[in-house]
Every structure is written in structure tokens, then in C-alpha cells.
Specification:
Family: Belongs to the LIX1 family.
Number of helices: 14
GO cellular component, one term: cytoplasm
Radius of gyration: 21 Å
GO biological process, one term: autophagosome maturation
Helix content: 40-55%
Strand order of the largest sheet: 3-4-5
CATH architecture of one domain: 2-Layer Sandwich
Protein name: LIX1-like protein
Length: 333
């Protein structure tokens, strides 16, 4: 009952939503990460948004409110922010700008259940290139997408890509609308070669996908991606299959987990599942290697990477609880 739902949800994230979730970069895909031109386009896109932010938030006087990025959207007028720029050359201080961006969103009524704090996580390393991840208040995660010679530069790199995605996410085209839902469902049918009669049935994967989209109408793509991460993890962990065996309906599963946040309890339970699997047949090392590769690919492509990062963190939690005895050959942890 639920397996088809899972396929529809996870594959649609990578197809129908990829062009918008990936920050308006034209859907940079993992198979061209190594291409020099692709990396250059990514850097240029990030720099363009950061420069636009800089141009629209400096030099107007601190009391004056001015437009940012999208002049047709007056509800996103931002104040000039003290301390936002480096003193010498007026380049935007992206770390401060990103934090201020989310504080302003909260002040304007955004529903941020865990507050507006932006969280940085540096990967322990004694040599370059250094890597840093940043988690936004809603849960989306991005990483430094450049080869960074210092930890500070890695922090700035992650803040740049997160700021760009935060800005793009506020554009009206990034919200789930009736038009978008119809287009996404149409793409889903084409992807799975489903017929029109079956497409929206409550017991089909496409129907569950439509149900999730309609339940999140008005939300942004990043907000929807955060929800999808939960279902991607449930599918990867085998939890959805277990619920199918208990005769849970798709609608019940979607309704329940749409209101569940990804917390330590959920991670701990998934880690226990992987410990049980490891004791039956060694699989943890291979899963960790794959999660590491997926995380690195997403990071260098400038994509939202909460799903592969959570996978790696859950597997590392299981690995540590096993006393570090799992076979992790070939993994750079």
C-alpha cells in the first residue's frame, strides 16, 4: 500500500521539484558536478545574488527601508543592516546577512518553531580544504561548495549558498500553488507511466503525492523539501514498508508524519534499526560510504543536502553505539 507512495514522493523530489528546490540554478545535477563550467555557473549565480543583496541594502541610510532582489514584491522591503558589510570594500558580510535575513523573517511573522538562529557545523579537519554546513531555522541544510583554505572561508561559503537559496525561496514562483500542483502531478504521471484514471486515486502513490502538495499549499519549496526529508528518511530506513505491513493507509501515514519534526528521538530510533540490521548482516559500512558520496556530491553542487546529511549522521550514531566496530572500509569520516 505504501511502497508506491514512497517511490512517488522521493522520485518527485528529484524530478518535478528539482528545478525550484535547487535555488533556481536550472537544476544543476550531480552528473555534471565535475564539469568546470557548471562550477563556474554556480559561483557566478551565488555571487550575483549576494551582490544584489549588497547593492540593495547599503548606502541608503539606516532608517530607510528599501527593496531587495525582487522589486515587484514590496512586502520584502528590508532595512539597511548595521555591520552587514566589511569596512574596507563594502562586500556583504554573508554570515551576518544570513542571520539578519532570518531574524527579519521572524519579526515579520514567519512561523519559525525553533527560532531564527542559523546553525553552523564545521567538519573536524587538520588540513584544507575545510568544510562547513549550515542549517537554516526551518531545517534546510547547505554546505560550503568551494575548496576553502580556511575554516572561516568554509563558513562564508556555506552562508553564501544558504543566503542565495533563502532569497530565491521568497519569490512568489517558489510557492506551492494550484498551478504548480497540477504540473507536478502531471510530471509524476509521466514519470511513472500511470494512467489518468489511477493518477489521483487515494490508494495510489500519485494520489498521496497530490494529497501532500495540497496539504502544503501556500508553503515555499524549501518548506516542502523539509517535510519531504522526513518521508525520504522513512523510506530509506524501511519504516514505510513496516507501516504498509501493518495495513496503515497512505493517507494515515502522510497525515501523521506531516506533523512530525525530525528530532533526536526519530534519529535514535532509526539508528537502532540500523544496529539490528548490522547484527544480522554487515551493511553499515556500505551505507555510510554511499551516504558520504551523496553528501559530497550535493555539497559541491550547491544543493540542499539535509537528506544525505541526516543519513550519514544516523549511520554514524549507529556506528558509535556499536562501539565503532562496524566495517567502514573506504569511508572518510
Amino acid at each position: 500500500m505504501i511502497a508506491a507512495t514512497t517511490n512517488a514522493l522521493t522520485q518527485q523530489v528529484n524530478t518535478a521539484l528539482s528545478r525550484t528546490i535547487d535555488g533556481g540554478l536550472g537544476g544543476l545535477r550531480h552528473d555534471v558536478v565535475a564539469d568546470v563550467r557548471t562550477k563556474q555557473v554556480l559561483r557566478e549565480a551565488v555571487d550575483a545574488v549576494v551582490q544584489s543583496f549588497s547593492n540593495h541594502t547599503r548606502g541608503y541610510g539606516r532608517a530607510q527601508r528599501i527593496m531587495m532582489v525582487y522589486p515587484e514584491d514590496p512586502f520584502w522591503a528590508l532595512p539597511t543592516i548595521p555591520g552587514l558589510y566589511d569596512e574596507n570594500d563594502y562586500r556583504v558580510n554573508v554570515v551576518e546577512a544570513l542571520q539578519e535575513f532570518w531574524q527579519i523573517k521572524q519579526a515579520r511573522g514567519a512561523d519559525l518553531k525553533n527560532g531564527a538562529l542559523v546553525i553552523y557545523e564545521s567538519v573536524p579537519s587538520n588540513s584544507q580544504p575545510y568544510v562547513c554546513y549550515v542549517t537554516l531555522p526551518g531545517g534546510s541544510c547547505f554546505g560550503s561548495f568551494q575548496n576553502c583554505p580556511t575554516k572561516a572561508e568554509a563558513r562564508r561559503s556555506s552562508a553564501k549558498i544558504a543566503l542565495m537559496n533563502s532569497v530565491f525561496n521568497e519569490h512568489p514562483s517558489r510557492r506551492i500553488t494550484d498551478e504548480f500542483i497540477e504540473k507536478a502531478v502531471q510530471d509524476a504521471r509521466a514519470s511513472f507511466k500511470g494512467n489518468l484514471k489511477e493518477g489521483d486515486g487515494p490508494d495510489t502513490g500519485i494520489g498521496a503525492f497530490r494529497f501532500m502538495l495540497e496539504a502544503n499549499k501556500g508553503r515555499t519549496m524549501l518548506e516542502f523539501q523539509e517535510l519531504m526529508t522526513v518521508f525520504q528518511l522513512l523510506h530509506w530506513n524501511g519504516s514505510l514498508k513496516a507501516m504498509r505491513e501493518r495495513q496503515c493507509s497512505r493517507q494515515e501515514v502522510v497525515a501523521h508524519y506531516s506533523n512530525r519534526s525530525l528530532d533526536d528521538d526519530m534519529r535514535a530510533q532509526m539508528a537502532l534499526d540500523w544496529i539490528a540490521r548490522e547484527q544480522e548482516s554487515p551493511v553499515l559500512g556500505l551505507e555510510m560510504a554511499q551516504a558520504e558520496r551523496e553528501l559530497e556530491t550535493a555539497r559541491l553542487a550547491g544543493r540542499e543536502l539535509r537528506f544525505p546529511k541526516e543519513k550519514k549522521d544516523i549511520l554514524m550514531l549507529a556506528h558509535n553505539q556499536l562501539g565503532g566496530n562496524a566495517n567502514t572500509t573506504g569511508i572518510n569520516c
